């Protein structure tokens, strides 16, 4: 696979108007017991809990997706470690309780198999140091997808959960995610997820160019903890809630919002929106560029999603 240039993606959902507020809740289920397997599930999803010991997986309470140990995905290198109990909170995803660390070797890879060549995939890796090695020194290391530099993982604090995400066209029936030791500590990983996308969505993604996620925001949420992902988002994109305050106010509807076919933003995301309190003012958005050592001046694309949530008079447009 040749080196792929990355564009950074800012994904925002905006809308206008409002009706009654609606809150989405997730049901939870008792954890199940699943056998380890290195195959995509019936959705084509691969969900790996790195460093999980034993052969058995479990069902994640929030998404009801099955997570599996990483034994079938690595070449056997690395060691399973638990994060320190000091960092295990009720709200913490179980997928972050353990890590696989790679004290030996300059490069260690995970191989995700049984993919469809030429299809677009979302790949997400999560890292939480949690002082698993009792050194109180989070490492800095590089992450590659195939031969492409993906991200320099640099987690400043043990409690910080770092998630990195890419959308790319995978040319083969497998893809490798590799951790590169750059001499600044032992690389580790907490969780690795792969989600297939349709060929038609994210037209910016081609064989020659991938997207790296900067932010994916769901405006107008009333509950700052209401993260929307699978099953509301069939592709399991994670939408970070932002509650309106100050010069903005939230609006929402309980009516179904038909998703557009290019991005398939879930109804639950499009049902909430923000608008300025003062109808004469606009909405102003900003972000800080995140230069990487190999990409000192990254290019960004911003995708905004709008839906009209209010019934407007026949002679009014917005
Ligand atoms: C991690 O924690 C689990 C459950 O508490 C325990 O069974 C296991 O032995 C621990 N693993 C290590 C490497 O300490
Ligand atoms: C990691 O981040 C810290 C601050 O967040 C910075 O000072 C340091 O230079 C970074 N390390 C590397 C190797 O990029
Ligand atoms: C609303 O914004 C307009 C234009 O910026 C300004 O002239 C007006 O004073 C604002 N109204 C209120 C109530 O703040």
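^ structure tokens above, recovered residues below v
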């Amino acid at each position: 696979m040749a080196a792929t240039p990355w564009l950074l993606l800012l994904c925002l959902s905006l809308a206008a108007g409002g009706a009654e507020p609606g809150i989405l809740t997730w049901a939870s289920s008792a954890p199940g017991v699943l056998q380890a397997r290195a195959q995509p599930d019936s959705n084509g999803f691969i969900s790996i809990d790195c460093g999980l010991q034993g052969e058995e997986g479990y069902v994640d309470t929030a998404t009801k997706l099955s997570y599996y140990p990483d034994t079938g995905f690595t070449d056997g290198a690395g060691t399973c470690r638990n994060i320190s109990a000091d960092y295990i909170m009720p709200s913490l995803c179980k997928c972050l309780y353990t890590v696989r660390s790679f004290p030996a070797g300059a490069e260690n890879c995970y191989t995700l198999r049984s993919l469809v060549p030429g299809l677009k995939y979302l790949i997400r890796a999560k890292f939480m140091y949690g002082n698993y090695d009792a050194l109180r020194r989070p490492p800095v290391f590089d992450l590659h997808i195939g031969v492409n530099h993906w991200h320099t993982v640099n987690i400043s604090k043990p409690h910080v959960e770092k998630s990195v995400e890419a959308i790319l066209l995978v040319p083969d029936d497998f893809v490798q995610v590799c951790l590169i030791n750059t001499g600044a500590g032992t690389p580790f990983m907490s969780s690795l997820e792969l989600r297939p996308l349709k060929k038609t969505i994210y037209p910016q993604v081609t064989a020659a160019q991938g997207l790296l996620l900067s932010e994916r925001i769901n405006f107008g949420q009333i509950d700052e903890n209401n993260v929307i992902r699978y099953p509301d988002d069939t592709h399991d994109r994670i939408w970070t809630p932002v509650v309106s305050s100050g010069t903005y106010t939230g609006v929402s509807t309980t009516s179904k919002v038909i998703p557009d076919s290019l991005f398939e933003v879930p109804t639950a995301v499009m049902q909430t929106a923000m608008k300025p309190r003062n109808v004469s003012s606009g909405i102003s958005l900003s972000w800080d560029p995140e230069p990487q050592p190999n990409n000192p001046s990254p290019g960004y694309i911003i995708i905004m999603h709008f839906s009209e949530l209010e019934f407007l008079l026949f002679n009014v447009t917005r």
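Confidence is low (pLDDT under 50) at residues 13-36.
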